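User: Here's a chain of 334 residues. Predict its fold as tokens.
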Amino acid sequence: MAPGTHASERALRKPIRKAVLLGLTLSCWLWTACRSKNPLTIAVIPRTSGTSLWEPVHVGAEVAASDIGARIYWNATTREDDVQGQIALVEKVIDRGYQGIVLAPDQSLALITPVHRGISAGIPIVIIGSPLPIPPGGKLTYILNDDEEAGRMAAMRVAELLHGKGSVAILGIDPDIAGVMTRGRSLERSLIERYPKIKVVEKKMGSFNVPYDQQIAEETLRKNSDLNAIIALTSISTRAACSALERLNSRKTIKVVGFDDPDTPNWFQSARLDSLIIQNSREMGLQAIRAVGAQVQGKAVAPETKLKPILISRENLHTPEIQKMLSMTWRTEQ
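Assistant: Prediction complete.
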């Protein structure tokens, strides 16, 4: 090799190294700029939208997203029985490459496959409301309503109304929603163990169809003339039970203890409705977004969290705590 060759090569390497370092610096700057223009986007898919049960999820999600610098993609089907529509939404957000998914499943079994697909794609998924038959862990997290406690609360409320003695009907049993089945079993167990003088005289399946559920409620009322109270396990069965009592114009005082949201302009416009046991869906949305953000940063999160439900009655409906929980306007909270 000719003298001076090594020196020439070293001289050439210096500008090359500088160019490489400059390229890396520019790449990092461009990546950071893209990240700032395209923040973390999390898809939130509730069972449906526009109701007092699921809109507070949106509130909580937006508040949490603002705190962590994320963006929310909110979408839902217009009916809770549109399971295929919800599956299509989950598939769409997976294909779009969103960095996280928060899902309130319409049906326990049908959503297993798309959720597995999202997990396999490395997307953190938080299930809210009611669980799927998939154990938590890895990219899958649960933030659930404590339906065991909800069942106990319903039993206690009915016992107070009936002074520990009487007959009740349970409406709205839905095997497709695990949380509804859990609250129903907890309710019956609590009545047997704590209030043995309260008898369950009728148990009826529910649907997502108000007229059908109202027909079931009316048949139950006609069949059981000595009925003292109705416990309605879903929002649809709650509304149906109140409508059936008003339609039949029964002179006997039969109170309804309902669940979730009957989706009326005034929850307690029906004198028949005693109380509602509500999921703290605002807090679910808040914690779900925080969990996704933590997972994206590589932080550990609790595999499962259960939130205590809230019993709402005429006495506490207008308190600041309840009104904040039910709020559908997140921008006022910034």
